[in-house]
Automatic annotation (TrEMBL), chain A:
<keyword id="KW-0479">Metal-binding</keyword>
<keyword id="KW-0249">Electron transport</keyword>
<keyword id="KW-0813">Transport</keyword>
<keyword id="KW-0349">Heme</keyword>
<feature type="transmembrane region" description="Helical">
    <location>
        <begin position="20"/>
        <end position="40"/>
    </location>
</feature>
<keyword id="KW-0472">Membrane</keyword>
<dbReference type="InterPro" id="IPR016174">
    <property type="entry name" value="Di-haem_cyt_TM"/>
</dbReference>
<keyword id="KW-1003">Cell membrane</keyword>
<dbReference type="GO" id="GO:0020037">
    <property type="term" value="F:heme binding"/>
</dbReference>
UniProtKB/TrEMBL annotation, chain B:
<keyword id="KW-0732">Signal</keyword>
<dbReference type="InterPro" id="IPR036280">
    <property type="entry name" value="Multihaem_cyt_sf"/>
</dbReference>
<dbReference type="Pfam" id="PF11783">
    <property type="entry name" value="Cytochrome_cB"/>
</dbReference>
<feature type="transmembrane region" description="Helical">
    <location>
        <begin position="408"/>
        <end position="430"/>
    </location>
</feature>
<dbReference type="InterPro" id="IPR051829">
    <property type="entry name" value="Multiheme_Cytochr_ET"/>
</dbReference>
<keyword id="KW-0472">Membrane</keyword>
<protein>
    <recommendedName>
        <fullName>Cytochrome c7-like domain-containing protein</fullName>
    </recommendedName>
</protein>
<dbReference type="InterPro" id="IPR029467">
    <property type="entry name" value="Cyt_c7-like"/>
</dbReference>
<keyword id="KW-0812">Transmembrane</keyword>
Length: 199, 438
């Protein structure tokens, strides 16, 4: 039996997809500056990286506001229930057509693993990237602000953060195909409505 | 210069500087006209110890030097000009552009492309526009120690201190042409803490005349059936000259870059030095830790010079003089030339001469290219063969990375990719199987 639920509001979808594009663009321009790939040339990669970074900050500001005003932040509060069942599902059950042990509902859209993963993303990874980005961009101000850091270390933290984002992106994109049918999560994220199987 | 006085002092200025007893404090020996002549007719005879020819004279059996008309010249004195400074400075090293690589006679009528400040149709600076003077003390960049000093800006009260790029352009020199704010320029301005203006704005040197890059004295003194040999290089100046040896030349050369705080270390006459080649004669001082140091472009000049292996001294040979004086250019004997030169310099000589590789660095500060020809980001911000590939002590994005972090990062991402591929593949295969079983 299937149920059609409105899970993702208009702002949430706009926020999600804009953020996705910005992060992919930041990864491309960032790895160009890192010397890994070569698409636009260093100068353009640099300036667009900065612009995209500021765009992401503006978007994140709206995102934070939205999370707190709508109470959506509560989706990221970690819970302990069903973690072992979910791990069992992704390592075995999914191959044999077993149902997902977690049931998506508008008031709990994220399964316990997602909660932990996204919380890590929001509380650790985003701040790390933002902080190191600002430090790198404004390294000339360090002496005036009493900051005594090593530019190379800051740059390496920012690079490590970039790898973490890329890692997340790979896994996240793949897991978006694990719905039934495979595109149902994607469709939900585009249209807001998702068909959920009821147990 | 020592022991070659009357030749060298045709530029190294002063009247009658013919031996080591010349008194540099004698004001009546100062040659005023060499700087202040505006007629272009004042010339010094190349071998007359700094004196101009007072009657018609022939140099080296070829070039006629007409007697200078001193009263005409004296009635036409004026400010120095590119021509008057250039008479010596463009020809340092014994010919046009030979030594410096960033000053030569093409600056007299410079194009914008060659020198954006001296552009005859544009800003039309003279040398003294930047090399400002106070009571005949000429601001110079590299010979006083420390030359650039503090990074002060030239306010009207600082007239006379306009030598540095920052004197006029400030410490954040790039300003948006329109609007108030340009992120690109902000980041360019951030570079001035570590990178000298010259590094990006003198992208190539020897853009006028070819400059000498290698000078091997050890091969000098060869004759062809008793006649001196002069072989031309493709760029024009000689690739071999009996008096000078083997020479190499270059045009439009890429500088080498070093940390530089405005001062040099010199190997001084009589300073013992091991023959660990190459022996550094002049080297820029500076380090990434030194706040006054910037990354700066240099012409690197290599050579092979006579050396006394017993006394461990670079030899100052006597080159110029009459036959029988020991002068190399008359007698062509390195031992005699070394004995005569070192005796005059008051230095010991063992009687043995070998040849050692030497290297010296010349800071590049002239022939500033227009902004469209400046280096671009990727000239240095690149993994391989960037302009600053050898510069240490600074994290250079695009060049520097941690191989370990990259290895771990890529491995993690590749494992993630392989993992999800296998996971996805299994899902497809097993889903088909279960459908069949249904």
């Amino acid at each position: 039996m299937k149920e059609r639920l409105y899970l993702y509001t208009r702002f949430e979808r706009f926020w999600h997809w804009t953020q996705a594009l910005l992060i992919i663009f930041l990864l491309l321009t960032g790895f160009e500056m890192h010397g890994t790939i070569s698409i636009w040339g260093y100068e353009k990669a640099y300036i667009w990286h900065v612009y995209a970074g500021f765009a992401l900050i503006v978007l994140t500001a709206f995102g934070i506001f939205w999370h707190f005003t709508t109470g959506a932040w509560q989706h990221y509060v970690p819970v302990k229930e069903k973690i072992s069942q979910i791990i069992h599902y992704y390592t075995r059950g999914i191959f044999y057509g077993e149902p997902h042990p977690f049931e998506k509902r508008p008031d709990q859209k994220l399964n316990p693993l997602q909660r932990v993963a996204y919380l890590f993303l929001k509380v650790i990874l985003f701040p790390l990237q933002l902080l190191t980005a600002f430090l790198l961009l404004f390294y000339e101000w360090w002496p005036h602000l009493g900051i005594n850091l090593n530019l190379q270390q800051v740059a390496l933290y920012h690079t490590a953060g970039a790898f973490a984002f890329l890692f997340f992106l790979i896994v996240h994109v793949y897991l978006s195909t694990t719905g039934k049918p495979w595109y149902s999560h994607l469709k939900g994220m585009f249209l807001g409505w998702e068909e959920i199987e009821k147990n | 210069m020592v022991s070659n006085w009357c030749r060298c002092t045709s530029c190294h200025a002063g009247y009658g500087w013919k031996d080591k007893n010349f008194d540099l404090s004698q004001e009546e020996k100062i040659d005023c006209l060499v700087c202040h002549d505006t007629t272009g007719t004042y010339k010094k005879f190349p071998t007359d110890c700094g004196y101009p020819p007072l009657k018609d004279k022939v140099f080296a059996g070829k070039k006629l030097f007409k007697a200078v008309n001193l009263s005409f010249i004296a009635q036409n004195v004026g400010r120095s000009s590119r021509e008057s400074c250039g008479k010596c400075h463009f020809f340092s090293g014994g010919g046009d552009g030979v030594k410096r690589g960033d000053t030569d006679s093409t600056l007299v009528k410079a194009s914008r492309k060659l020198d954006v400040h001296m552009d005859a149709k544009g800003l039309n600076f003279s040398c003294a526009t930047c090399h400002t003077t106070l009571a005949h003390q000429i601001a110079g960049r590299h010979y006083d120690t420390p030359a650039p000093g503090k990074r002060n800006l030239a306010l009207p009260k600082d007239e006379g201190y306009r030598l540095k790029c920052e004197s006029c352009h400030g410490a954040r020199p790039h300003k948006p042409e329109k609007g108030l704010f340009d992120w690109r320029l902000i980041k360019l301005n951030d570079h001035t803490d570590k990178v000298a203006c010259q590094t990006c704005h003198i992208p190539f040197y020897a853009r006028g005349k070819p400059t000498n890059t290698y000078w091997d004295w050890s091969t000098a003194g060869r004759f062809n059936n008793g006649k001196p040999i002069v072989e031309k290089s493709p760029l024009g100046p000689p690739s071999y000259h009996t008096k000078k040896g083997t020479l190499k030349w270059g045009r439009n050369l890429v500088p080498e870059y070093f940390w530089y705080n405005g001062t040099f270390s010199y190997l001084l006459p009589g300073e013992k030095v091991e023959a660990n080649e190459p022996i550094t004669l002049i080297k820029p001082n500076g380090s990434p830790e030194d706040k006054e140091s910037r990354i700066y472009p240099f012409k690197v000049h290599l050579g092979k010079q006579p050396y006394d292996p017993q006394n461990k001294l670079i030899i100052i040979p006597k080159l110029f003089g009459p036959k029988g004086s020991g002068a190399f250019w008359a007698d062509f004997d390195w031992i005699k030339a070394s004995r005569a030169g070192m005796a005059e310099a008051g230095l010991p000589f063992s009687g043995k001469v070998s040849f050692v590789e030497t290297v010296q660095y010349h800071a590049l500060s002239h022939m500033v290219a227009p902004k469209e020809d400046a280096l671009t980001c990727a000239s240095c911000h690149t993994r391989k063969d960037g302009r600053l590939a050898k510069i240490k002590g600074v994290y250079l994005p695009g060049r520097d990375f941690s191989p370990w972090l990259d290895r771990i990062g890529w491995l993690a991402c590749i494992f993630a990719f392989i993992g999800v591929t296998i996971h996805g593949g299994l899902r497809i295969v097993l889903a088909r199987k279960s459908r069949k079983e249904d």
